[in-house]
Design goal:
5-stranded parallel β-sheet; 31 strands; FAD/NAD(P)-binding domain; alpha/beta; 4 domains
Length: 569
């Protein structure tokens, strides 16, 4: 029996659900409404249009075979009726009708439905700042925003830009301004690091240092008090600490789910916004589905509520909803929280929980950091990759992995491998023995993921006791007080420059010579072991343990991590 499906929202989930349903029930009718004139666009691509990586804004609204995804396309190609510039104002659940209003004419009507899909997405979080409505102050929400920003830059109107917020969009926009256009770019972040809660301070510092090397300036621990302008055009940003010149301002302080219409209809909504759904993407009304950026889903690592506004998730959920509208029983279990962001020639990626978020969720967690080549050491295009694994100590459960590396696919591939198994509560042993494709141009025989899990195993067993670059910095900064003996386990040629610069504190005994030179290593002082990546210093730690040394610390990540972290020796 044919039915009428009404979809509120036409960006990501809405079109996917509508088109999937029409393929399964071509005799049924689908009406998709959206208050904007632009529908079915790739919002995540906006920073890359501003940067010039995407040459034409229309590419964000076209198919892979270059057809514009407009109402005509949906009607003729997909069989879906689309009504743009039409705002849903109320859901009448008792009579199964949606009240709508034409945003241009103000005309009102109601549309009946058999089943309803709420795909209202999310809106940029507004800060309520004085001057937030000045020309040149933008959010990054739709292709119109992208066009305005890029046109201003192209006309030479933007010499300096201020980004408010150091999350995904903020960092991507900072790169877009600084890299392609050479704009003097500053980022103001209220917390003390980039990508707060998503990565550790160590990885955040590595990413920040790389962006600073490419011309981006960061101001952490500062709040924006006001945005000021002249003749209606933005000119400066006032923070709690300084005044920053700004010809353009991007507010990227996160997004808020558009769930008011659902709440007003009596549907279950999170106290901070977001529609609750079950595993079939149904709300508490069995005839109403919801998904995408307006939705709350389970976090499969913590078991708690999660809000994950990503186009990839919206598309997957859209297919599930379309299937279930046609009588199917497809399920969406939840999310583990996977991400990747490009930072000039590098990228930051992760899945699951960072150490801070794991502890906040109540886990007795620890983390280990590893730097290793992303492919065979003898292959000419090898690069160092940094990975951090978060583990629940009592159960050995892997809670998350985050990384910093090149902007290629190597690191993202490792993160995705872990993401695929996180919902099954893998242990260290599962990752240690994980089967991964191997060939020297692509990986080492003992892949970095396997080695990372082995490092976590050794750390839990107490045979690889160490600190990351932040811990090393603390030891180095207090070297006079703590009287640490810093022992470089590399060969003489690598260690000599540091011995010459710091003869009182920096010492060199190559790992292979330790047993023959024990008289040079004191037993009555803390010994801090350093090599290139932490592997040889781990071997040295085992050797010193055997000889009765009691206070030996290995620097995880070694000199590679120290350099990426920006420690001046």
């Amino acid at each position: 029996m044919s039915q009428h499906i009404v979809v509120i929202g036409g960006v990501a989930l809405g079109p996917k659900a509508a088109c999937r349903f029409k393929r399964l029930e071509p005799e049924s009718k689908v009406t998709m409404i959206d208050q904007s004139s632009m529908i079915s666009y790739g919002g995540c691509g906006i920073p890359y249009y501003v940067s010039g990586d995407v040459s034409d804004a229309s590419e964000l609204c076209t198919t892979s075979f270059h057809m514009l995804r407009d109402p005509k396309f949906f009607k003729e190609v997909k069989g879906v009726d689309v009504r743009i510039l039409t705002k849903a104002t109320r859901i009448d659940r008792d009579n199964k009708r949606v009240e709508v209003e034409n945003v241009q004419t103000g005309g009102k009507e109601s549309i009946s439905y058999d089943k309803l899909v709420i795909a209202t997405g999310a809106s940029p979080r507004k800060l309520g700042l004085p001057g937030e409505d000045l020309k040149g102050v933008n959010y990054v929400a739709n292709p119109g925003d992208a066009t305005r920003i890029r046109e201003a830059i192209s006309k030479g109107e933007v010499g300096s830009a201020v980004i408010i917020g150091a999350g995904f969009i903020g960092l991507e926009m900072a790169e877009a301004f600084a890299d392609m256009w050479g704009v003097e770019t500053s980022v103001v972040e209220i917390t003390d690091q980039i990508m707060p809660r998503l990565v550790s301070p160590t990885l955040a510092t590595m990413g920040r240092k790389h962006m600073e090397e490419n011309g981006v300036t960061f101001y952490f621990g500062e709040t924006v008090k006001a945005i000021e302008g002249e003749d209606g055009v933005v000119k400066r940003v006032i923070t709690s600490e300084r005044v920053l010149d700004a010809d353009a301002v991007i507010i990227s302080a996160g997004v808020v789910p558009n769930s008011d219409i659902a709440k007003e209809a009596g549907l279950a909504v999170h106290e901070r916004g977001g529609v609750y759904v079950d595993e079939f993407m149904r709300t508490n009304d069995p005839d109403i589905y919801a998904g995408g950026d307006c939705c709350i889903v389970p976090n499969l690592v913590t078991g708690k509520d999660a809000f994950l506004p990503l186009g990839s998730m919206a598309n997957r959920q859209g297919r599930i909803i379309g299937t279930n509208l046609a009588g199917g029983a497809a399920k969406f279990d939840g999310v583990v929280g996977s991400f990747v962001v490009k930072l000039f020639e590098t990228s930051m990626a992760g899945t699951g929980l960072s150490l801070d978020s794991a502890k906040a969720a109540g886990f007795d967690a620890m983390s280990v950091l590893l730097i290793q080549l992303d492919r065979a050491h003898f292959y000419p295009t090898k690069e160092l990759m940094t990975l951090e694994m978060v583990v629940d100590k009592p159960t050995r459960r892997v809670l998350g992995v985050q990384g910093f590396g090149s902007s290629g696919d190597a690191m993202v591939g490792r993160i995705n491998a872990v993401a695929a198994i996180l919902k099954s509560s893998p242990t260290i042993d599962d990752v240690s023995n994980m089967e991964l494709a191997y060939s020297p141009p692509f990986a080492a025989a003992m892949d970095i993921l396997n080695t990372l899990a082995n490092l976590a195993d050794n750390a839990l067993a107490g045979i690889n006791r160490g600190v990351g670059p932040a811990g090393f910095k603390e030891l180095w900064d207090n070297r006079d007080k703590d009287a640490c003996f810093f022992l470089d386990c590399r060969e003489k040629g690598d260690a000599d420059p540091f011995v010459e610069r710091n003869p009182e504190f920096w010492h060199n005994v190559p790992q292979g010579e330790i047993y023959n030179r024990l008289d040079e290593i004191p037993k009555d002082r803390p010994v801090v072991l350093i090599c290139n990546t932490g592997a040889r210093s781990y071997e040295a730690q085992i050797m010193l343990d055997e000889k009765g040394y009691k206070d030996v610390t290995n620097v995880h990540g070694g000199m590679a991590a120290i350099k990426k972290y920006g420690i001046d020796l």
